Amino acid sequence: MMQNGESNPFLINEEIPWEVIDDKLSRQIVGYDNQIMMVKVQFKAGGIGQMHSHFHSQVTYVVSGLFEMTIGDEKRLLKGGDSFYIPPHAIHGCVCKEEGMLIDVFSPQREDFLEPKEL
Questions:
Q1: What angle do CA 117, 84, 17 make, to 5 degrees?
Q2: Which residues of 87-105 are buried (b: 16+ CB within 10 A; e: fewer)?
Q3: In this predicted model, what pLDDT tens digit does every residue of 32-62 receive, in sequence order?
Q4: Is 11 helix (H, G, I), strand (E, B) or coil?
Q5: What is the pTM of this model?
Q6: CATH number of the domain enclosing 57
């Protein structure tokens, strides 16, 4: 998938591995270079995207499911077709109410997502 610090130009879904985060959350990196990254995140009901912050700008599209999304002090219920923007350093997280998928776009890339994982 990686080629000179960036993903291949064509990414075939069946050939891209999923990283299991926990029993209710998995992610698949579907394209990146040093300026941008797109990631699919699959949630089972009850899955939690822990509250956190990072220096990246983030835009997320809700493909399916129902998510209680918190950005800063504001909490909203979002469903398939909705989107949200997270500015750099904003504290955010979500709880999946109904199984679904998010597509996250980060700028710049999340280098921590590309680091080798300890076993």
A1: 30
A2: eeeeebebbbbeebbbbbb
A3: 999 999 999 999 999 999 999 999 999 999 9
A4: coil
A5: 0.91
A6: 2.60.120.10
* For residues 19-31, average pLDDT: 96
Residue 64 lies in domain: 40-109
What total of structural domains would you count in the chain? 1
The DSSP H or E segment spanning 6 is strand 6-7
Residue 114 pLDDT level (bands cut at 50, 70, 90): confident
Question: String of b and e for 46-84 (b: at least 16 CB within 10 Å)?
Answer: ebebeeeeeebebebebeebbbebbbeeeeeebeeeeeb
